[in-house]
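Batch job 17 of 40 flagged for manual review because the log was empty.
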Amino acid sequence: MTATDRSIELINAAAQAAADKLAHDIVAYDVSDVLSITDAFLLASAPNDRQVKSIVDEIEERLLKEHGVKPARREGEREGRWVLLDFVDIVVHVQHSEERVFYALERLWKDCPQIELPEDAEATRGKGEAAAQEGGELS
């Protein structure tokens, strides 16, 4: 089983929205073979709480405007350190860079196929780590 075309479409829209708000390290996994509750996960991060919230808002707004979907569940918004948007077909995780390193969700899903993302989203890979090494993280 693989992620549906609809799930891939939503993942790509969410990834582009995250990239437009300068998210770091955007990656998506097809988890349909290992989970029955969703097809795909999108992971993205940002160096501060305010940017995490901005990315989440943009993803939510874009998916509603372009695809007519709202999250069935939204968790973690108050803290702004790790926000989960559950759109049923896809689940989006936007994490503060520190949480991204600590929880390392990529390790959990590394055996699942990665989903090819729009060029802008692909270009964000490694940006969070580069910013941290340059001391560019804003907390």
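Reviewer: the log was empty due to a logging misconfiguration, but the result itself is present. The mean pLDDT is 91. Unflagging and moving on to job 18.
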